[in-house]
Amino acid sequence: MSRRHAFVTGAGSGIGRAIALALASDGHVVGLAGRRAAPLEAVRAKIVGSGGEAIVHDGFDVTDAETVERGIAAAVEKAGEIAVLVNCAGEAPSAPFEKTDFALWQRVLSTNLTGVYLVTQAALASVRRAKNGRIVNVASTAGLTGYAYVSAYCASKHGVVGLTRALALELARSDVTVNAVCPGFTDTPLIDSALDTISQKTGRSREEARASLARANPQGRLVTPDEVAHTVSWLVSQQASAITGQAIAVAGGEIL
């Protein structure tokens, strides 16, 4: 299963970055996809510096069908069939439902849900040809339960979990598995943005806001990106061939 082509969206920071590094450490040739070149190049440099191989695919907008199709075709041409597809690109703005206007709703659904559809649809034929294909969608505990003030995000991530389960059943008789990982509050740049929002709206310090998020985890802490990445690393391994259609919470017991 090593030296296979793994394509990761949202690979420039946070969970996507950790997943890309983990898959490179496992021996995969990693396609690093995202909108901005600089963070992707930084990840590539770290992978190459550790003896791995990575290819940058910048300008990769998961909400644009033509861009996605061109990007996937270019990735296959450069590194061969995509054996592992990880959909990690996403965003998580917060707003009360009554202040969630259509533009915000559409942006979140387009990135978090339609983006998974577009990338998977463009890459699926290649994943099938690669044999023993793996598709992992990075959802969230917000795909398994509800949270106040992030209705668009919850809707999008519930959609990702539903799409994961449906596609897993369609592909169950093939050698392609489809799973979702559902992190709880994770120590990433997205959390930093959430902390700023909480501080502005409540008057609490960022440290107090961070502590309030950590309390949602029964272990009393934030999840680390590496913990999510290790789960993905296992799901794409040969040992996880019987695991498909699952939404695995990485959340310290928050979701049971």
What would you note in describing this structure?
With 256 residues, the protein is of the alpha/beta class. 48% of the residues lie in helices and 14% in strands. The protein has eight helices and seven strands. It has helices at 14-25, 37-49, 65-79, 102-130, 151-170, 189-202, 206-214, 225-235; strands at residues 5-9, 29-33, 53-57, 82-87, 134-138, 177-183, 247-250. It has a seven-stranded parallel beta sheet, with helices on both faces. Strand 5 (134-138), helix 5 (151-170) and strand 6 (177-183) form a beta-alpha-beta unit. The radius of gyration is 17 Å and the shape is globular. The protein starts with a strand and ends in a 6-residue tail after the last strand.
